[in-house]
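Z., the sequence and structure:
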Amino acid sequence: MYKYLIFDIDGTIIDTEKAVIGSLQKLLKVETGIDYPADELSFVLGIPGSVALRQLNIADTDQACLKWNEYLKEFYNSIRVFPDLEEIIKYLHDLKIKTGIVTSKTKQELLDDFYPFGLHDYFDYIVCADDTTKHKPDPEPILKCLELAQASPAETIYIGDTGYDMQSAHHAGVDFALALWGTKDPNLNAKIKLSHPKELLDIVKTEIERVEGQLNDSYGQ
């Protein structure tokens, strides 16, 4: 059914909620003197940090983002890859199933937060916040990834965990799969709702069978 999978990162591949919210709480306490409850900051999950800070009325977002990234390092030990996702991602890569990433992280944040897990090499294309003028929920990041991959929307599905991911996919004409293991809103409008990462293999079952068939044919020659 689908030939190309595009993934969000935070809340989809890696669990960063505690780190993102905890470091933001510290930043806001330092910058404003206000103790923000975690539930009041959940809206920042899935959008670029600079956008989130503007919504929180932080004037110098560039400097604040630098401080936020520094505070985030104090929470690195709480960041983890969701169970079984590493194996699934590597398996898809081994079969040469096209995969990409569309994230609200900047390239530097990607280097700091995601690269340490060693999964970046298993994706064919990565679109960060620096790569587009507009960001999720706008379709531009997903459309950019489709352009790089020379993939059609009809053959592509975007896997994410937030309303921003859902809207970006819908606006790009791409089906949306909801990662239930990371979402805070299981009622989002999704073409497919994934209870477990292994269900990703069902999404590209036809493509996997095609690739495996080619491999078997080559071995039989």
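The mean pLDDT is 94. Residues 135 and 141 are 6 Å apart (CA to CA).

Let me know what you think.
H.
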